[in-house]
Specification:
alpha/beta; 7 helices; binds iron/sulfur cluster
């Protein structure tokens, strides 16, 4: 049986969040997520209804990505680590050594333990943007997975932790974020904070977030695509 990858959308864009903000990219949104966060803005990736996504072999999908002619690829979701990103990335690197990859993950999975064909060496091929979901999304951390990503960040310079923080509950959210960082011994230099929201207003006038980041040595990431396009999909 040929294992297929479930893809919700593929399009070119400027990376809208994180350390590569503004970078021309190919965004590959994979279908299916293991969580149901209360403020999820991509719940359309949760369904197995066949008219919501396409199924591609690794060769088919790598051809589609290659044709976009941009060497930086963002794997997002849904939860992209539920599918074989290692094999896909290695296949793309065989087409061109110029490819670079970053993964937006909720940090609940340990890919080399759950995905056949995901090699431990595959971690080094990608930047990992781990966005832990906790009580502010009505979720609980998966401790062994968080421990894995935290320890990986000590040996891999491209592992970051991006926390969503809500303006209305900033004190409570910040307290929890600090607890998590302390518990898993994560360097503050690897932490990014992002204001929750899919409206342009939610990403403006966030002096409160600026001040929190400066005080704690965190990076602030805006949501560039939201600032420019609002809640529009596929941008
Ligand atoms: S992890 Fe991401 S895609 Fe999954 S439910 Fe949470 S916000 Fe949505």
């Amino acid at each position: 049986m040929i294992k297929k990858i479930l893809v919700n959308e593929i399009h070119t864009c400027l990376q809208g969040e994180g350390t590569n903000l503004g970078k021309p990219s190919v965004l590959v949104r994979l279908q299916i997520c293991n969580l149901r966060c209360s403020w999820c803005d991509t719940s359309y990736t949760h369904t197995y209804k066949s008219d919501s996504f396409n199924r591609y072999t690794v060769d088919e999908l790598s051809d589609l990505i290659f044709q976009k002619d941009i060497p930086h690829v963002i794997f997002t979701g849904g939860e992209p680590t539920l599918q074989n990103l290692g094999l896909l990335s290695r296949t793309l690197l065989q087409k061109s050594s110029k490819f670079s990859f970053e993964v937006e993950s909720n940090g609940t999975q340990i890919p080399h333990k759950s995905i056949k064909d995901f090699l431990y060496s595959d971690y080094a091929l990608m930047q990992w943007n781990i966005s832990p979901k906790f009580e502010n999304a009505n979720q609980k951390l998966v401790n062994d997975a968080m421990e894995f990503w935290a320890r990986l960040s000590e040996n891999h310079s491209l592992v970051f932790f991006k926390f969503v923080i809500r303006k209305r509950h900033k004190i409570r959210d910040l307290q929890k974020i600090l607890e998590i960082i302390t518990k898993f011994k994560i360097s503050h230099s690897r932490i990014l904070l992002m204001a929750e929201g899919t409206t342009q207003k939610s990403q403006l006038s966030n002096e409160w977030l600026h001040d929190i980041c400066l005080e704690h040595g965190f990076r602030l990431t805006p949501r560039l695509h939201v600032l420019i396009f609002g809640a529009k999909r596929g941008v």
